[in-house]
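seq as requested:
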Amino acid sequence: MSQRKNDAVENLLDALDIAGHFMIPEVCLCFGSYLYRGNRTTKVSATAFDAFSSPNLPPLAKITAMDVEVAWDLVHRPTSLEKFSIQTNLDTAHVACLRIFPGIKPAMVDAVLQTEGLRGLVLETYGAGNAPGGPDHALTKVFQKWTERGVVIVNITQCLTGSVSAVYATGMALGRAGVVAGGDMTSEAALTKLAFCLAAPGSTPENVRRYMSISLRGEITEGTKTVFRHPSPTLSSKVTNLTAIHYAIAEGNLEKVRDLLRIEPEWLLNNPDYSGNTPLVSPTACRRQSYRLHNIDER
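struct tokens:
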């Protein structure tokens, strides 16, 4: 507080100002002239004055020289009155966090999951929740083995913004293996929430998995947005042919693929459709292991 290059005084005064003048019944972080929801916040700089950020939720309030602008539509308010209580005997030393990296081996993941007393794992994956399955899906089988044994594994993204969703085949494989999609939770929020839910009296792997995918205190974005949708009511000729090629490859219909490529003036095999998949790497096409590219005539 006594150092010249210090923002502690300003942050403390801003926090006192908001606490004394506004009814915001949340655990918050006041820093750098912004009020953030605590379970949405992560540290993004070790040295800058704006060291914290809320990547997937706007600030609850902004402090200016003249006023405090509160985003009341974002503030969580209680819907019922309950007697205050606190759990004093929570055992939270039974969770871990593992970041997926190129070259990770199934034996490494298996070794982490074999840790004595481990009941939950936060898995930080690529992009929208993707992880390599490994040769013969060995890594996916490791996850499935431990989820079947009652370990709760939660999938969150390594990216600063965005959410885990079953868009790609590898993400879908994790879901089928029993891994819970953690949406847009930060690593800190996912780890804390998982530890709390597992330590709560009467918790079971089944109800913990359910709680990890829904919002308890605004820590995760819930919504009903569809994963795939057409950008317009009608599809262009190019997209129509591209979709037809997808289905033809998935069905292994070589003659139909040849016919479509003859009449289509553009080389479509490397073009993505509205869901971001190309005909040769779409999840449906990948299941057709017997299909061979060299059977397609050179154009």
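Residues 283-299 have pLDDT under 50 and may be disordered.
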